[in-house]
Write the structure tokens for this entry.
Amino acid sequence: MMADFPRAFAAVVDRWEGRLSRNRLDPGGMTYKGRSRASHPTWPGWTRIDALSKLPGFPGNLEADVELQRMLKDSYRAGEWGDIRGSEIPSQPVADEMLDQATLEGPGTAITLLQYALNACNKGGVLYADVKLDGGFGDRTMEALITVLAKGRERTLTKTLNVLQGFYLLVGRDLLDYLKAHPTPAWREEFWSGWLERISV
């Protein structure tokens, strides 16, 4: 069964992204539920928000505005969800994690971390040829993902993605350069599933 966008949206955007934010430390500037004005300047939701800002009850009135909420969901469905091929992922937990990462770090980074995680779960190349860490969700990446899931490794993959996300949030884009230059050795892949049980995330 393929992942469901409304479920993923509820698990990620509704749960974590909050409401309107104008944090001076946020490089994205004004942000509404994961949509930053700096990163998504042409999103039509900003025109709606600007209009609603002139009405009583702002910013609380944003939550009750049906048109704005539709614009938001449409943006995620066509954007991050489409980029991670969410509707083709046969695992809701993996799709939820991918949407979370695509929202926070961008789809390219989320896909690169997925590719590294797939290789780390590959037990030294036994299941499939390692995929290239290029940030593009091509057919080889999807085939590897389907293979890992078919082998019953959904929890291992999801947890691996979560661990990598934690490192990325602390280190930033330098982590991607490191991962690309240092593929996981086969002996680490062999023991990775067991080691994950000792990590609480």
